[in-house]
């Protein structure tokens, strides 16, 4: 219920916590989310430092940014 109680406040999720429930909302919650995605691609174009977690919870949302 904590996530549900915080939802009206558009609270930013903590990166160290599982984000599955809010994954589709990340671009809306973080005003510069698309800048982060662009920077990630610029700094790591070959994806050497990506992980399954980043792919699933952060980079997988890039299409909706």
Class by alpha and beta content: mainly alpha
* Number of helical segments with 4 or more residues: 4
Largest sheet: none
Q: Please, what is the average pLDDT?
A: 77
Task: Please characterize this protein's 3D structure.
The protein is mainly α. It contains four helices and no strands. The chain has helices at residues 2-6, 26-29, 33-43, 52-58. The chain is elongated and about 40 Å long. The model has no long low-confidence stretch (mean pLDDT 77).
How is this fold's topology laid out?
Elements: H1 2-6, H2 26-29, H3 33-43, H4 52-58
Please provide a brief summary of the model:
The chain has four helices and no strands. It has 65 residues and is mainly α.
């Amino acid at each position: 219920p904590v996530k549900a109680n915080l939802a009206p406040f558009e609270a930013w999720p903590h990166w160290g916590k599982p984000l599955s429930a809010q994954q589709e909302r990340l671009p809306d919650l973080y005003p510069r989310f698309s800048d982060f995605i662009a920077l990630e691609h610029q700094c790591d174009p070959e994806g050497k430092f990506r992980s399954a977690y980043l792919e699933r919870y952060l980079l997988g949302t890039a299409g909706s940014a």
